[in-house]
Amino acid sequence: MYLEHFGLREYPFQLTPNTGYYYGRASHQEALTMLWAALESGEGFLRVTGEVGTGKSLVCRQLLHKLGDHWQAALILNPALDPASLRQVVADELQLDAGNDCINAHELLRALHARLQENATAGRRTLLIIDEAQVMPDESLETLRLLTNLESEEAKLLQVVLLGQPELDQRLAQPHLRQLRQRCTFRYRLQPLPLEVVDDYLHHRVQTAGYRGRGLFMPKASRLIGRAGQGVPRTINTLAHKALLAAFGDGVQQVVREHVVRAIEDTETADASAIGIRRWLPGRSRGEERT
């Protein structure tokens, strides 16, 4: 659509996590620094939480990108699994052939332990990353805790990073999950982008996408995107993409405030009060929408 118009090589505000667009001036970098330091020191359980759209998956991808050859990492993106399925998926992600040789949970656990010990002997650490961990059943969370009991005399054989929405913290606060909560010695809560860096964030993404012109987003447009997006990267990206579409439709080379207003009006997750609009609710007449 607008790539040639703005001199872009690719779309800069796609929602798919892409480490090439990683922005290192937000709380994401603090989270990564904490994770890396804790993993290197051998901590067994770590967790990172954040609201929807704050960039947990990007932190996950960036962490995987940072791992060297002395790590074997397993990533589970859909952990809504019962304990048996969880053990099987972990075995699959660790490239463990757990077919007919492992006919029950006990033998599968022995095979997992053998693989973890094999990695440790070879100087490799084993890392399990679970995204959207807030959806895991209690029984599977307990199974995960028991898996981290596998250890040598020197260190944990399996290290785990849990990524999830704030509901994960609420889940782990329950008394019957206190043992798992106590294992999570390091935790971090991702924060929205500060409003003062939103303009720099937008500039970083369009430059990464190949833009070489002058400021693509005018200052008022950037500030409005930050306010309406409430600092949430996913919403900011959505608004920026729609604002670029609006500017393209007008045949202009810069995004101004009016283009962002149109984007906000078309985006349910945006804070419409930033432009004086109240979302329509049942029982309210359409004439009451704008304040």
UniProtKB/TrEMBL annotation:
GO MF entries: ATP hydrolysis activity
Gene3D superfamilies to which the protein is assigned, alphabetical: P-loop containing nucleotide triphosphate hydrolases
UniProt-listed SUPFAM superfamilies: P-loop containing nucleoside triphosphate hydrolases
InterPro entries: AAA+_ATPase (IPR003593), AAA_22 (IPR049945), ExeA_AAA_ATPase_DNA-bind (IPR052026), P-loop_NTPase (IPR027417)
Pfam families: AAA_22
Domain AAA+ ATPase as annotated: residue spans: 42-187
Segments passing through the bilayer: none
Name of this protein: AAA ATPase
